[in-house]
Structure formats: C-alpha cells, structure tokens
C-alpha cells in the first residue's frame, strides 16, 4: 500500500528509537496540543489572578498527558507508524490508554468550570453550555459502562480485524480520525473510572475497579491473537518497505506483544489513582463528620450511648 499521500517517503531507514523521536510534526495534532496547553494555562492564570489556588500537580499531569500525545503524533514515530505495525501499536496504546489517564488527572473540566465566566441572567455562555453537556442524556449514555466497555472492545476487534482499518489508513484525514477516535475512546472509558472531573456516571470505588477489569482481558486477548497469528492480518502492513529491513509477520507479532504488555500498565496506574482517591474521599468524609460533631456536640454519639444505657437498664 502506498502511503505517500501522508507526506511519507517510502525509503525510511531501519527503525531506531533515536530516529523515531526526531521531530516530524503533524499539523493537526501540533495545533491541537498547543491549543490545549494554551487554554489550560489561561484557565490556571485566570484562577490565580483572582486569588484562587489550583494544584500544581494537576497542571503537571495535564501537561504531561498532552505532551505524550505530541510525542507519538509529532515525531517520526508517526511516520514509521504508517509502515510498521509495531510502531503504530505504540502510538495506539499511548494515545488511547496512557494519554487519557494522565490528561484526566489534570481535571480540565473542573478547571474550565472554575475559570469560565458566568453568563448574565437569561444568557448562556461557554460555562453554561458545558454544564448542559455534562448533565445531558447524551453524556449519561456515552459514559455508562454498558456503552464504554463495548466501545473499548470494538475499537480493537472491530477496527483491526475488518476492512475499516485499511480504509482509514488510505488517507491522511482517515488516519487523523482514527487517532482522534483512539483518544476519545480512552477518555470516555477512563473518565468514569478514575477521572477527577465531575461526570454523570460516578459509581462506587469497587464498581470502578470492576469496570476497569471488565475491558482488560479483551485487550490482552487481542494482543495474544496478533502474537499467535501465522500470517499478516492487516493489509496495510503486509508489504513493508524493503528499506526497513523487517518481516511483516514478525513485526505483527511484535505489535501483539506491545498491545498485550500495555494492558497491564494502565491497569496499575488506574488502580494506584483509585486507591489514592478512595483514601482521600474517606479522609474528607471523616473531617466532615468531625466538623458536624463539633457543631452539634456529638449528638449522634450521645444518642448511641443513651441507647446502650437503655438496653442495660432493661437487662436489669
């Protein structure tokens, strides 16, 4: 398959990490990443200008998340990913499973809700429209596990094992659309599970862990299927350029290994985030109970002690 329409040359030298990390910006993702960082920075600056605090850690998380998108889309990893299945799989795994997690830890929606100005009475500005979207039926559907888990699975099997992948790889807009899809799927899958931002679907912590593990086995099986295959399964990578010096089947098996290994990394990161959030939530609830006890003189404890005393009196 000829990928020259992507601004690619067919005589790329054999892949090395150094060559893969050379700058080769995709204009769409370059502008998108710069815009995301600029808007986030504007929001933080607006909060600080009025004396409000914003955790530095959230700014760091969001910046790292956006830069991880730029890493795989604005370097020659993107060029090599057009002709090497293994490099493409690195792009896919980072932009769908690593970048979303780190971006969500930056709480961009919370920042937007705090930084955007409130519109006048009877008017709807950006903040009001964002709130409407967050509380809409559409958002309740797309963040529900009955939707996100099948979407997560279909993005693997329904894309790579059907002609859709080859169709998207035939044009630059198709390739961009595919990468945006990977990023969007990762965001809607991980947002209800470990996102800091408010959302319409926010189950308990045990349910969040179950949602996480519901999709991971399918991801691992996908990687194993590529590793165990005895023939190339994706037409776009059947005939890699001779200048790369690679075998299509070996490269596909490597892609499967990358997909299988990556199913573990996000699971660990999300579990750590969930345990930390769970601990923080318990701490906040304990502080609220302590404040309530200080206000009412610990009436709940007094009532319980009175109940125990009544039981003791009846026992006599």
Give a brief outline of the structure:
Helix content is 72%, strand content 0%.
**Helix residue percentage:** over 70%
Q: Major sheet, described briefly?
A: none
* % residues in beta strands: under 5%
First CA to last CA: what distance? 91 Å
What gross morphology would you assign? globular
| Count of β-strands | 0
Cα-based radius of gyration, to the nearest Å: 25 Å
Can you walk me through this structure?
This protein has 316 residues and is mainly alpha-helical. It contains 15 helices and no strands.
Which properties best describe this structure?
single chain, 316 residues, mainly alpha, 15 helices, 0% strand
Write the layout of secondary structure elements.
Blueprint (H helix, E strand, L loop, with lengths): L16 H4 L6 H23 L6 H18 L2 H5 L4 H21 L2 H8 L10 H9 L2 H6 L2 H16 L3 H6 L2 H23 L10 H24 L19 H15 L2 H32 L2 H17 L1
Helix pairs in contact: 2-3, 2-6, 3-5, 5-11, 5-13, 9-11, 9-12, 11-12, 12-13, 12-14
